Amino acid sequence: MVKTPDCNVTEISKLIHHYIPTATLENNVGTELSFILPKNYAHSFEALFTALEQEQENLGIASFGASVTTMEEVFFKVSYMEESQTDIKAMQSSSQVGQSSNRNWNKNMSRNVERADPPTLNESPTIHFNTGCSLYSQQFHAMFVKRVLFNWRNWKLLLLQILGLIGSVAFLLSSGHTSEDEIIRQMDLGQYGQTIVPFSLSGNSDLAANLSKHLKGMLKSENQIPQEVQGDLLRYLRETKDCIRLCIVALSIESKPNIVVLTALFNNEAYHSPSAALAVLDNILFKSLSGADASLTVSNKPQPPPDGKDNEKPINGQQLALALQFGMALLISGYCLLTVTERTTKTKHIQFVSGVSVIVYWLSALLWDFIIFFASCFLIMGVIKYHKFDIYVMDYHILETMLIFTLYGWSAIPFVYLISFVFSGSTSAYIKLLLLNYFSGTLGFLIGNILENKQLTSMSNTTRTILGNSLLFFPNYNLAKCIGEYTSIYEMKILCTIYKNLSVYLNCSKENTEKSIYSLDEFMIGKYLIVMSTTGFIFLLLIFLWETTSWRLRTFLNQHIFFRIYKRYRKDIVAKELSGQSEDEDVQNERKRILEQPQELLNSTVLIKELIKIYFKSPAILAVKNVSLAIQKGECFGLLGYNGAGKTTTFQILTGEESPTSGDVFIDGFSITKDILQVRSRIGYCPQFDALLEYMTAQEIMVMYARIWGVSEPQIGLYVNKWLNSLDLESHADKLIRTYSGGNKRRLSTAIALMGRSSVIFLDEPSTGMDPVARRLLWDAVTKTCESGKAIVITSHSMEECDALCTSLAIMVQGKFMCLGSPQHLKNKFGNIYILKVKFKTEAKLEDFKCYVTTTFPGSVLKHENQGILNYYIPSKDNRWGKVFGILEQAKEQFDLEDYSISQITLEQVFLTFANPEKASSDEENEVP
Ligand SMILES: Nc1ncnc2c1ncn2[C@@H]1O[C@H](COP(=O)(O)OP(=O)(O)OP(=O)(O)O)[C@@H](O)[C@H]1O
Fold first, then answer.
1. Which sequence ranges are marked TM in the entry (predicted)?
2. Do 161 and 167 meet the contact criterion of CB atoms below 8 Å apart?
């Protein structure tokens, strides 16, 4: 029944009980009133409905109808009976007494019992909500714990990143060193394999002949090839092809009067050829003096380091600078994982609409990520110390090195946050950021060094400066430069102290050695430190700016640029599709009321004024076409429509996710286009796809949202448990959300949307995937939330759900409202048929019954016939409820009917009429007069 303002519910109940004593009140919410009438009183229906029709005006009934029990209600009844027979004791002993009564309510279908309860879920008088500084500190706490839990639950990933950092640094540092035990290298020709040794002999002297003989003998014994050259030895070396590769040493023995000149030649491409040539020469001299058996062995053994420095490693700053790049990129890039996931799954949006401030959100993330980074830097210092890179750890240098790392972290973490806005997937974001950071560090470092060396490039100074300065944008480049320059400076200082006479190679002037490393001069680190500390602030500022002004920017572009251009070139479409005029009287009246009355008089929680949304693609998609609507406090408004009708887009605009192309929305009087931050903290939102942090448990995420809303710390447990109870989630409270079924995730998303102090809650298909029991729990929670004074806007493809919950609804078709009003109003307005279902005991009188129906109800249509069951559409015009029941009671006896039912058109049939007008009109033409 639809009640008028002066409806007398007590009198209506009395009248119904007069005819049907066992009738029960099912629902009394808003303008809707419904009773359950047992079927065994079907014989009294004629009298009851006739009496209702006669007294309709006196009792304050705007309209009424009847529907039969659905299969879902049968499901509840059967499962309840089954359960009560088998497990009644268990249910009674349930510790959750309130919960248990909830379940009974749902399974009994006696909704009135529960709905009569005072609202307990929202703003219970005992719950205190913090504001101001305490609210901000609670939100910071919630955001910080969220971040900690992410790393705690994904510890393997974090460990991998830290091990990657330390491992890569350790590996690259150790692989760059020469071994401590240097090998002894023998300086003979054997180290080059078999070689050709050209030699020339000139003059006639015994000594020369003797030397030549020893040379040949020695070379043969060493498996080398002696090659006597007649004529010019140098020319032979230059022109003989084989010599280019195989001649390492050569010898000339020249006899002059009174002297023999021995000359050893060496191939200057072979590293050890000079000493090998001398060794050959010394050997033949020794052999000629001491006999053929005498020999000399020449070996190369590096000299040991000076006293006390025997373990010191050579310092190599570039090596460390490059070694750090991969590990740092691996760790730092990982900070995009949660931020990208939160943004793409809309979890961040939900946190913002629940009231988290932008500053709190990002600073809490920065703090935790910085702690992890700082701890990792200490581990790197350990590795550096272990590898004896004393320059970074001796004296106060550890502080200087940590300062470089700290400033790098300060700029690199916000850099990663900022760049992560570009990506739509967390894994691809990680890989791409890893490559960007790594290559900006390594290639940037090499390019930077080339740019600094004026001899290597022919660029003008301006180009060189622009290129050099643009590299400063990348934190990894600054880190590499800092470490590289830092090492060079101290290396120079140490060398100048030890070797005072090295002025040929080093500038060891006082001015140079005593200059501060923090100086802004070239080859000092001051510039890089200042750039890192400044870019940290700039990146953070850009993030805050983007978060707070991107909405305005998008709205401005949409409304003042794109839409203006569109209007200019598509006047025909704008006039036809976006005028806002409607053929439906209710939609038109609502629009007129909103446009004509001042906003204050409308006093609505949600006010939608001429809302238009166009997706400017090719071709442009007109998703919402000039919609106006006012939703009051305590109202549950349903938005129905086929897939693609524009419901989600409307929701996205109402929650500040999408910007409107034209028009405005006011929540509690605050404009969504101008005061988005005020609007955000007044909204609860359950999006179409679950926006949950899957590494958390239900308990943890609910506690997080309770903190975001500002529930006082001692009451959070109580508050969260209430909401977990309300959607029957306590048994899953401690399980990770990633293990939940789809239905349970929906329950949790809905509970999150319903909690807090919002004025309006948007539920986008909340019951998708829920079982019937969970759906009833959801209905119960939604009804109680409405009763607590909040407005709820819901979209659903379940007509039954909208029928049960919504005080008013609109059917949306291709972006427009086609009708508007309460479910019963729409059924009465558009449902001009009754649905008659008849079942025969035998089919003997079936044909007679068909003739009877055709003559008794002119215009009726047999919709469906199957195994003795007939399904008719009967026009309701001229056939009142009482008359129809009277006729069918008589027909039951006359035609031997086993059973019959007569019901009003369902909301679903009204929906089909509107949502598919072409089909519906052809159906009506063909089937229903
Ligand atoms: N981001 C987008 N870019 C372009 N077009 C879009 C975008 N989002 C939605 N649309 C289009 O806008 C229209 C309305 O889509 P919307 O998602 O609002 O429908 P809906 O009624 O919520 O459908 P459903 O019931 O399937 O959720 C559709 O034609 C859709 O293709």
1. 155-173, 320-340, 360-381, 402-423, 429-451, 525-546
2. no
